[in-house]
Design goal:
By secondary structure, the protein is α/β, with parallel strands linked by helices. It has one domain: sialyltransferase cstii, chain A, CATH 3.90.1480. Helices cover 36% and strands 14% of the residues. The protein contains 10 helices and 7 strands. The chain has a 7-stranded parallel beta sheet with strand order 5-4-3-2-1-6-7, with helices on one face. 32% of the residues are buried. Keywords: Glycoprotein, Glycosyltransferase, Membrane, Transferase, Transmembrane, Transmembrane helix. It comes from Paracoccus hibiscisoli. It is a single-pass membrane protein. This is Glycosyltransferase family 29 protein.
């Protein structure tokens, strides 16, 4: 697909041509087999902690959206995969230099050509997003979609950093919980249940 065909498919909301740019979900998940994965959320509280070295020691470091990283001591330095639900400014793309981009938003019109044409690009299926939204009773955050996706793999462990379900707000903006469409209480309860049922999952508070 060239750039013009991509723009046309995006404008007309034709998901099949866009999905053809994506690696299969099975291949994405196979890449995680046996790995210790760190998923980094954007909670402001993470900046007050010192988990950077532990984050960078993971086999795979996955960050979310613009992924603010105020200090290596708190956030680490690596970005192996970047999960997006918003357009990524060129400066952030250069700063993060992700090895793979995952587009998690159902809003395909926000998807940019640089991301869609990048090596290893992954497009999260609309059906998976809808299924999780039904479970949570609200549109899921990018973090929730990533947790749901990653735990389908045969990874060895998944450790969550910077997830406090908006209690300390987000480093990536000034919006309050009432300004976004997500149900953070539902997501917190869902993760609490996962922690009880899946020994691979750890939440660093």
């Amino acid at each position: 697909m060239n750039r013009l065909a991509f723009a046309t498919a995006r404008l007309l909301r034709r998901d099949a041509p866009l999905a053809a740019l994506s690696v299969p979900q099975s291949a994405l998940l196979a890449d995680l087999s046996g790995q210790h994965v760190a998923l980094i959320g954007n909670a402001r509280a993470l900046a007050d902690q010192a988990h950077g070295a532990q984050i960078d020691a993971a086999d795979r470091v996955i960050r979310i959206n613009r992924a603010p990283m105020p200090d290596a001591a708190s956030h680490g330095t690596r970005t192996d995969w970047l999960a997006l639900a918003t357009r990524l400014p060129d400066a952030d793309r250069a700063r993060l230099a992700p090895g793979r981009i995952l587009w998690m938003s159902p809003k395909r019109k926000r998807l940019d050509w640089a991301s869609a044409s990048s090596d290893g690009f992954y497009l999260h299926p609309l059906a998976d997003i809808d299924l999780l939204a039904g479970r949570l009773g609200a549109p899921p955050t990018t973090g929730a979609m990533m947790i749901d996706l990653l735990l389908r793999s045969d990874l060895a462990s998944l450790t969550l950093y910077g997830f406090d379900f908006f209690a300390s707000l987000s480093l990536s903006g000034r919006r309050a919980a009432a300004d976004v469409p997500h149900d953070f209480a539902a997501e917190a309860a869902w993760v609490a249940d996962l922690l009880q049922r899946d020994h691979r999952l750890t939440l660093i508070r």
